[in-house]
Each structure stands twice: as structure tokens, then as C-alpha cells.
């Protein structure tokens, strides 16, 4: 199970907040809130892919640079990127310059466009894999779930890249497809309420 930490404001939060000062705002304002916006969903999955082998702090610090480099993660725009764009991005010191991951984002943008044509929206597709807390499993006690494994498998079948079960699970945690805040965390109830009032796509 994940740890907890008490902030200077007296609030108890998930222990990972103590890793960096900027994580408190991310934890309180973003992590776990349900998201139905296709562009935000695509962005988060791409950023989680870039995080593979790195720390979230590294990616989070460069998030604005990633947004500028990838047209705000508008997948309809990124899907049309060419080899010239790949070279441009490899020269961009503001992002993680990993050819495989850059090319994966462009590939996944193409796959996202196809998926929207088939399923209606990314949100409708991703939320069909909504995760529930399994009996006997505590919050932040695992790095993947049966749902993340199933979603990763289907994405790979559809041609997506850098979308393993652990990457997909981190995406699901962040985008509210599961409430994985520690029960003692002050945000756990907030996210439960947000999820209960959230209209599924």
C-alpha cells in the first residue's frame, strides 16, 4: 500500500506528493479527476509513454514543452507529422529526445484518429475499460490491473506503441478511471464525489 504524508496545510495526502513540491498542486488539482476530453486523454497517454524508464517529475517539468512540440497533443494534427517533424523534435532540448517514443506519438496519433472513427471518441473507448477497486487490493498496491492489461492488449492489437499494462495503469489512475488515492488522503472523497457525478461518455 502507498504511504501518506501530512502537508504544511494539515491535509493528509498520498505519500508520493513528498517527492517534489510541485506534486502537491498536481495531486490536488489533476490526479484522479475523471476526464472525458479526447485531447487530454491522448496527451496523458503520450506523456506516460515518454515517462517509461524515467521519473514523472522529469516529464511533468517538461509538460509545457511537450505541448508546444506536439501541437497541444491535437492528434489530428500530430497524425500528419512527417520525418522532418521527427528530426525537428529530436533537436528540441525542451522535451525527451527519444526517437522511438517520438515516432510512437505520431503513430499513436494516427491510431487515435482511426479509433475515433470506429468508436466515436477516445473517451468512449477508454471509459469502456473503467477500473473498479478489486476486493482485497489496497490503493497504490500494484502497478497494473486486469483492466489495464486488457486495454494495453487491445491498443497493441490496434497498432498503438509504448502502451504496456503499467503505462496504461498510470494513465487510468491519473485520468480518473479508478480512484487510487489512499483512503486516508483528503482527496479520496473528493475524487469519489467527482466520479459519482461524472457522466460517462
From TrEMBL:
One of its GO terms (molecular function) is metal ion binding. InterPro entries: Adenine_glyco, DNA-3mA_glycosylase, DNA_glycosylase. It comes from the Bacteria. GO terms for biological process: base-excision repair. Keywords: Metal-binding, Zinc. Zn(2+) binds at residues 14, 27, 181, 185. It holds the Pfam family Adenine_glyco. This is DNA-3-methyladenine glycosylase I.
Amino acid at each position: 500500500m502507498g504511504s501518506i504524508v501530512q502537508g504544511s496545510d494539515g491535509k493528509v495526502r498520498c505519500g508520493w506528493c513528498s517527492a517534489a513540491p510541485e506534486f502537491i498542486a498536481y495531486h490536488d488539482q489533476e490526479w484522479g479527476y475523471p476526464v472525458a476530453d479526447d485531447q487530454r486523454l491522448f496527451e496523458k497517454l503520450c506523456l506516460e509513454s515518454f515517462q517509461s524508464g524515467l521519473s514523472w517529475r522529469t516529464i511533468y517539468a517538461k509538460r509545457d514543452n511537450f505541448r508546444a512540440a506536439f501541437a497541444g497533443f491535437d492528434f489530428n494534427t500530430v497524425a500528419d507529422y512527417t520525418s522532418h517533424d521527427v528530426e525537428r523534435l529530436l533537436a528540441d532540448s525542451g522535451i525527451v529526445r527519444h526517437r522511438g517514443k517520438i515516432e510512437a506519438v505520431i503513430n499513436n496519433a494516427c491510431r487515435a484518429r482511426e479509433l475515433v472513427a470506429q468508436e466515436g471518441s477516445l473517451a468512449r473507448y477508454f471509459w469502456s475499460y473503467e477500473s473498479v477497486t478489486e476486493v482485497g487490493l489496497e490503493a497504490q498496491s500494484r502497478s497494473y490491473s486486469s483492466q489495464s492489461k486488457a486495454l494495453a492488449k487491445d491498443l497493441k492489437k490496434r497498432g498503438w506503441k509504448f502502451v504496456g499494462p503499467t503505462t496504461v495503469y498510470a494513465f487510468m489512475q491519473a485520468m480518473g478511471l479508478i480512484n487510487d488515492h489512499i483512503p486516508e488522503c483528503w482527496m479520496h472523497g473528493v475524487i469519489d464525489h467527482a466520479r459519482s457525478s461524472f457522466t460517462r461518455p
